[in-house]
Amino acid sequence: MPSKQFIPPLPDVVPERDSRVVRCYEEHLDGLGLCGGKTGLLTSTARHIAVWLSINEAGLDTFDVRLLDRFMRHECRCPGQRRTGRRPDPRYRSFAIRFLRHLLETGRAEVPPEIKAGGHLAMRYRDFLEERGYARSVIGLSGNLCRHFIVWLYLSDIPLADADERVRRRFLAHDCACAHPGFLDRPTGFVGSTASGSMLRHFAAFLVDRNVVPAPKAPQSHTERWEHLDAFLHWLRRHRGLRDSSIERYERRIRTLLPALGDDPETYDAARVRNAILNRLETASREQVGGEASAFRMYLRFLGSNGLCRPELVHAVPTIPRLRGESLPRHVGQDDIERMIATCDLTTPMGMRDRAALLLLARLALRAGDVSGLHLDDIDWDRAVIRVSGKSRREAELPLPQDVGDALRDYILKARPRSDERKVFLRIRAPHLPLKRNSISTSIVSRAIKRAGVRGVGPASSHLFRRSAATNLLRDGAPLEAIGTLLRHNSPDATAIYARVDVRMLRELVQPWPFEGEVR
Fold this sequence. Notes:
- By secondary structure, the protein is mainly alpha-helical.
- The chain folds into 4 domains: 16-105; 113-209, no CATH class; 225-316, DNA polymerase, domain 1; 334-503, Orthogonal Bundle (hpI Integrase, Chain A).
- 54% of the residues lie in helices and 2% in strands.
- The chain has 22 helices and 3 strands.
- The chain has helices spanning 16-31, 36-55, 65-73, 92-105, 113-131, 136-155, 165-173, 194-209, 220-223, 227-239, 244-261, 270-278, 286-305, 334-342, 349-364, 368-372, 402-415, 437-452, 463-475, 480-487, 492-496, 503-509; strands at residues 379-380, 385-389, 395-399.
- A 3-stranded antiparallel beta sheet has the order 1-2-3, with no helix packed on it.
- β2 and β3 form a beta hairpin.
- α3 (65-73) runs antiparallel to α4 and α7 (165-173) packs antiparallel against α8.
- It is elongated.
- The N and C termini lie far apart (113 Å).
């Protein structure tokens, strides 16, 4: 025989005002045509809630998800309940949520202001994602996660303004029982996955941009300011025209040495400067220390020219010997270059974008920064030239080959996402931000190398195309001066490194090794 369904007994005392609300709820359930047992369970849950609220000196008009959570956790000693001393039956949560939905729909209860405000922000965030071109599936998942976060904050009594990274980690690890009628259906199977964490960080950044949440404090190690270093970095940007990436490299290298020297250049002496750099050899490679010494040498020149230290201290910076030319430039043949370019799938927007970028690297020997920094206005279609800004922001005009121009035209007209951004190369997936310099090497070039099956080229780098272009031109008989012009080198020494890869020329210069005892 089927087991008899448990129906909790009705409480002995129910406030008259709340009793009328419960009777209206019972009539509403009867109108839905539910079976008697189901109606009894739902009605008895509503009356239990009314009694519990009355004991806690609250009315049904104050009932919300936070009180619902407290109701589900209370040790029940309500009049008329058989389960005295125990928590309510777990089934009560869905029954209680259904009752709360009825109260909200009939205007007998209100959505908490915190949930309302959070809901408005979630809608604005949804519009923000739509404007940025995110897929509908991503927008739906992000919206549900944001509403979940807002409800959890309210249940945890945490203001949205205090939702820092520590609070977000707590949310991603919580044992979920969150729900809110009409706002959030209870999430099923929620775990603090990597995707959820990423979505939540984007929502947090959105809130920071709108001053809803304070910006996170910088780590203590990065808050220490060096007065003269800041002036030096400003000088590099304004008077030397260095890019932000180069300035960050100078700052990182000099900051490594400043703790041992201090920020008062008047206290520097030759022994102190020399020892600070030589001591770094105990914990860093010669190449790394050599870069730090070079950066600090320029820093001392800046200080000396401004009368902040003795100018002769520049000579106290030791030269860290490094072998030059111990390895040949990594390169591949022209056939491998063409095969990598041909692997791009021109039926997809990503393939059209990647082919245009690879052709710029292969035909014009551009650097990754030149490609990522290319603007729409830099392409002169009438004159068939493009303007690039190389190191130290030196602008140059380069001819636009036919195949490169065709690839750029097809990408811009058929595959480039619609955006107000003026840079040519954008991310295909939302948000359609400009491609960074590292993305050229780590994404576009590495995928092309893998698809073409090219081996023995070492770590993927956009410079592989630049070096291969120089090497292949040299082997075809082009003079070093012409190659230096293509590569936009300031010094012939920078181009001379490629002379070592021309084996045929070296064979003409090599002298026979003398036999033993032969006079040379």
